[in-house]
Design brief:
Layout lengths: L1 H27 L13 E7 L3 E15 L2 E5 L4 E6 L8 E2 L4 E5 L2 H38 L11 H26 L2 E3 L4 E6 L6 E2 L4 E7 L2 E8 L1 H4 L14 E8 L2 E16 L6 E8 L17 E18 L8 E5 L5 E5 L1 E5 L3 E6 L6 E3 L12 E6 L2 E2 L3 H10 L1
Parallel strand pairs: 1-21
Antiparallel strand pairs: 1-20, 2-11, 2-15, 3-10, 4-6, 4-9, 5-8, 6-7, 8-10, 11-14, 12-13, 12-15, 13-14, 15-19, 16-17, 16-20, 18-19, 21-22
Helix pairs in contact: 2-3
Family: Belongs to the membrane fusion protein (MFP) (TC 8.A.1) family.
GO molecular function, one term: efflux transmembrane transporter activity
Keywords: Coiled coil, Membrane, Transmembrane, Transmembrane helix
């Protein structure tokens, strides 16, 4: 009987003890600390706006061409008996150098014949002069008054004088033809192509080859109306010649050459609506300068032309310029702000802002998917440097 009562009382007792313990624990529990949730700002990298005084650089491109290009043409007939070692494609030669020599025998004979004709005509003139003196003396001794022209042999004298002049002209022509048997370079240059060779018979008008002058090279650069607004073009009695830097990749290395803009062609291209400016480069093959890379004809080059100068201009990376000439900033309250600016010029790298930005403004350079005006942000790197340190920025992010 006692065991049965114990079995009934023990579970009840355990239940009351458990309830008492639970109530005690509930009374001793501290309330959870209430913490206000703060908004987390996006980490944004920025650059600082810095006004500058700069000279605009106008970009263009073109192909290097020689200023002087000449086709060598024979002015005599004959067989080629000698060719200069420099009369090969790409060969360099000096001004006045003999490139091709034509057989001279017939022309030497012509010179001798012309000399003989001149001597004969000169002798005849001297003889006629003697006859004129005799006629004048006879007329003066037998007759008074003015003698007729025929009586004094004036027509005969004029004829002999004309014969002498004709013989002199023939001699000059023969000597000139003889000199033309030596085809000389009209200026220092290189041979672009040749069409004849040793032993070949050529006639008057035969093209011997094509030569380029190496003293000056030219590059035609297309310029738009917008480009012209930022340049000083050569004009007037004291023209300015803007400096031009030409560049190209040669044998895997970037090379530069200096030139100057000397003129414009003065007519807009009807199809492209651009005007062509001509840049001149002295001694492109560096024949007078050792150790420099030559600027070869036919090379395609990029050009950077010195333009006008402008003050208080802020260069902004072009990718930061948004539609409507807006730029995303981080203001003093560390909030995003859209600012409309005035752009004077743009190129492939920068937009040049002349109004709408102040010195020290922070321009957001981080890629933000959906930026909104007034969005709270945190500054990360400014001009490529962390405000404190990358670790500090990371701990800041972890704390937020």
């Amino acid at each position: 009987m006692a065991k049965q009562k114990l079995k009934i009382i023990l579970p009840v007792l355990i239940l009351f003890v458990a309830i008492a313990l639970m109530l005690g624990l509930m009374k001793g529990r501290q309330p959870a600390e209430q913490r206000e949730d703060l908004p987390v700002g996006v980490l944004v990298d920025t650059i600082t706006a810095q006004p500058e005084t700069l000279i605009y650089r106008i970009g263009s491109q073109g192909t290097v061409r020689p200023k002087l290009m000449t086709s060598l043409v024979s002015e005599v007939n004959g067989r080629i008996i000698e060719v200069s070692p420099n009369f090969v494609e790409g060969g360099f030669f000096a001004a006045g150098e003999v490139l091709v020599t034509v057989e001279q025998d017939d022309y030497l004979t012509a010179v001798k014949a012309a000399e003989a004709n001149l001597a004969r005509a000169t002798a005849a003139l001297q003889e006629e002069l003697a006859r004129v003196r005799v006629a004048e003396e006879e007329w003066a001794s037998f007759t008074e008054g003015d003698a007729p022209e025929l009586g004094l042999r004036r027509p005969q004298l004029a004829r002999e004088l004309a014969n002498v002049r004709s013989a002199e002209a023939d001699l000059e022509r023969a000597a000139r033809d003889l000199s033309r048997t030596e085809i000389r370079a009209p200026y220092a240059g290189l041979l672009q192509s040749r069409a004849v060779n040793l032993g070949q018979f050529i006639s008057r008008g035969t093209v011997l080859g094509s030569i380029f002058g190496t003293d000056l090279a030219e590059v035609r650069l297309p310029l738009s109306d917008n480009d012209l607004a930022f340049m000083h073009l050569p004009s007037g009695e004291q023209p300015q010649f803007p400096a031009v830097e030409l560049s190209a990749l040669v044998a895997g290395q970037q090379q530069q050459w200096q030139g100057k803009l000397v003129r414009t062609e003065g007519v807009l291209d009807e199809r492209s609506r651009v005007i062509y400016a001509v840049v001149q480069v002295d001694d492109p093959y560096r024949l007078q300068t050792d150790g420099q890379q030559p600027l070869r004809f036919g090379r395609f080059v990029h050009a950077s032309i010195d333009g006008i100068s402008s003050e208080q201009v802020i260069p902004v990376p072009r990718n930061l310029l948004r539609p409507g000439n807006q730029i995303l900033l981080v203001n003093s309250d560390k909030q995003l702000e859209f600012r409309t600016v005035q752009v004077q010029r743009t190129d492939e790298r920068y937009a040049y802002v002349v109004a709408g930005l102040d010195a020290g403004d922070h321009l957001a350079v981080s890629a933000l998917p959906n930026p909104l005006a007034g969005m709270q942000v945190r500054l990360g790197r400014v001009n490529g440097e962390w405000l404190d340190s990358p670790a500090a920025a990371g701990s800041d992010m972890a704390g937020d």
